[in-house]
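Review form for a predicted model. The reviewer records the input and the model, then writes brief findings.
Reviewer: anonymous (R2)
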Amino acid sequence: MSARRVLIAEDDPVSLRLVEAMLKKWGYDPVLTRDGAEAWQVLQSENAPQLAILDWMMPKRDGLDVCRALRQDTERPYVYVLLLTAKVQEQDLVVGLEAGADDYLTKPFAAEELRARLYAGERILGIQQQLVNAREDLRNQAIRDALTGLFNRRYMQEALERELNRAEHGGSALTILMLDLDHFKDYNDAWGHDVGDAMLRQIGALVEVRTRREDIACRFGGEEFVLILPGVPLSVGRRRAEDFRKGVRELKIEHQGSLLASATVSVGVACFPQHGCNAQELLRAADKALYCAKARGRNCVAVYELLDNKTSESGPEAIGG
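Model under review:
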């Protein structure tokens, strides 16, 4: 929420300046508009105020119309609306609240009453933001791996299906990389699980730093990671896999101030549509390529290859080391 910014929509210049002076005195940052159309334009802008004082009767667009439009726009942050009106009939006030106003104040009004209602609006917006943050935290817990902060396996499966659908309809490539930390069991046995966790966290951080915004980096399970690279053809995916392999090899891994032994990863590469037409086929191809990289001595990249378009397969081609 923008810090104590309040929009004022009032066509009477005297009333506008009076309310502006009050708000400044109370520590608010008033944003002045002189009709409903101007108010709506400001409320649609980036970083718009979330507290709004709207006069009911205004030229071009009245306060009720602005309220209704705000409540229909569910994609933007909630705006708390205080409606100013000279109308005192109960039915008029019901109409105002039904249009989407959160509160109303009848003219003329006392300064302290306006101040109290603005404070109430701030409290409600604060509670709402806490709920939004809590919901986002729960969502992150559902889709993120607690140790590395990368997406978890469940989210990976959903994302891969979605991205494959986009690639199929858009006629574009998609590459997945399957990374596995070499000799991870030996690290755990020799140094303990705390050291193993430290290695996974730092490798996860490296993976996240080296991905594009559109890439989807996931912890597949244990010491395995899967990277979904939308729009990336096989040749580019192969180079990126090698970059990840070199990055891990050069990574200085620390735990409690001590430098640990260097880590390495093996990487399997598979690409849509060459190596699979669905998520299961593509993951199986990447896993077979990864197995080949392990069998060839680890610390290398293996690309899954097909002999032809039938069911016969060749072993993946390996690079790196």
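Findings: The first strand starts at residue 5 and ends at 9.
Further findings: Residues 5-143 form a domain with the Rossmann fold fold (CATH 3.40.50.2300).
Recommendation: see findings above.
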